[in-house]
Amino acid sequence: MMNVEEEVGRLREEIKRLGELQSDGSYKVTFGVLFNDDRCANIFEALVGTLRAAKKRKIVAYDGQLLLQGVHDNVVITLMPPPAPSTATE
Fold this sequence. Notes:
Elements: H1 4-18, E1 20-21, E2 27-30, H2 31-35, H3 38-43, H4 47-56, E3 60-61, E4 76-79
Helix pairs in contact: 1-4
InterPro entries: Costars, Costars_dom, Costars_sf
Protein name: Costars family protein
Pfam families: Costars
């Protein structure tokens, strides 16, 4: 079983594969497209849980808390653009 960080990383890749790149560097995909994709279905046991974890980490954004297949197929999920590389050394 994958850990949450791994799942969120995979989710990011799948959104890039299925979504559309926006001018700000983000990607947009609808929940229905993600949910109904065979590859996603094989990777994510609990897509909704992974989305919630990613949302909590500010990696994705979407309206609502719990997404349900059918009801929320048109909800747009936005993969946030990667943070600008910081010039400060840590």
